[in-house]
Automatic annotation (TrEMBL):
Keywords: Carbohydrate metabolism, Isomerase. It comes from Streptococcus zhangguiae. This is Aldose 1-epimerase. Its EC number is 5.1.3.3. One of its GO terms (molecular function) is aldose 1-epimerase activity. The active site is at residues 174, 300.
Length: 335
């Protein structure tokens, strides 16, 4: 039974999924968003919320509109707030100096999506159409974001899209995690493994410099595991630049390219995706009302940021009538 309840304002709804193991997920149609991921791990049988959450749509609007949200059409930053698509230059909304961040202003993470509930599949799908010219992006783009909670404690996210014009499209989910369940403590002692040989260094404008560098000998080397603390010492110029991590790693083609273990060793999170990269942001410029500095981390699976303007970063072109599909899964094991 997928329970539906109010979530703040009149249009906002919360959708509650649960499986046989007792894992629970709360979603909302406001931004096609993950609100809570609840795991029955506490010694007293209680639930631990391992995602950064707000209590209503209004709270997200006033504090931080990104946590848990679907980011479309293009995640991350676009240089000069423009891109060339099939020989034509399109200009996008500049919501940072000289840049477009996360698709511009008043985009889908702050909209109310249509909803389809499938109790048999234990899933909820949200749909929206991004109108032609919205924030400068071409095409009426029909987007569907589906969340399914499985019996093996996996939250599956599937994004599909089609456009009636050639456009660019690179979605992600902006869920933040803290596996301690307490976003008032930092994530420095989380153990993380990333199957990645290279990462994309950033410039002063937080845009990738346009090249990939080896992780060897840097705080970006998590191939055999490490903690976020190795980048929080801020000895490396790239960590100093963003006060932690806000970087893309190019993932190796392995079954579970990312794994995170909680400091108390009670929870393991593994990630699978059909996307080439993961962007990890360690809440370096926090909304203090929601979490402390370094109080959460993202695992945003996507194409490389600014790929539309960087040769060698892959293509995020979505051609007219082409079907786009992105699949990312977060699997939880607890002990």
């Amino acid at each position: 039974m997928i329970e539906i309840s109010p979530f703040g304002s009149e249009r906002a709804r919360k959708y509650h999924l649960v499986n046989e193991a007792g894992m629970q997920v709360n979603l909302t149609n406001f931004g096609a968003r993950i609100v809570e991921i609840l795991l029955p791990v506490e010694e007293d049988g209680g639930l631990r919320n391992v995602s950064l959450s707000a209590s209503s749509d209004e709270e997200y609007k006033t504090k931080d509109p990104y946590p848990g949200a679907t980011i479309v059409p293009v995640a991350g930053r676009i240089s000069k707030a423009q891109a060339e698509i099939k020989g034509k230059v399109y200009h996008f909304t500049e919501n940072e100096p000289g840049r477009t961040l996360h698709g511009g202003v008043n985009t889908a993470n702050e909209q109310y999506w249509d909803v389809e509930v499938n109790e048999a599949a234990n899933s909820v799908c949200f749909t929206i159409t991004l109108s032609d010219g919205s924030n400068g992006f071409p095409g009426d783009v029909r987007v569907k974001a589906c969340y399914r909670l499985t019996e093996d404690n996996t939250l599956e996210i599937t994004y599909t899209a089609q456009s009636d014009k050639d456009t660019i499209f690179n979605p992600t989910n902006h869920v933040y995690f803290n596996l301690t369940g307490d976003v008032r403590q930092d994530v420095a002692d989380h153990q993380i493994r990333i199957a990645a040989e290279t990462y994309a260094p950033l410039g002063e404008d937080n845009l990738p410099l346009g090249r990939l560098e080896s992780v060897e000998g840097t705080p970006f080397d998590f191939r055999v595991g490490g903690t976020f603390a190795q980048g929080f010492t801020l000895e490396h110029p790239q960590n100093q630049l963003v006060k932690g991590y806000d970087h893309p790693w190019v993932l190796n083609q392995v079954a579970e390219p990312v794994e995170v273990v909680s400091p108390d060793q009670r929870i393991r999170l593994t990630v699978t995706t059909n996307q080439p990269a993961v962007v990890i942001y360690t809440y370096n410029f926090p909304s203090q009302d929601m979490a402390v500095f370094h109080g959460a981390f993202s695992l945003e699976c996507q194409g490389l940021p600014n790929a539309c303007n960087v040769e060698g970063f892959g293509s995020i072109l979505l051609e007219k009538d082409q079907l786009f599909e992105h699949v990312t899964s977060y699997k939880f094991t607890w002990f």
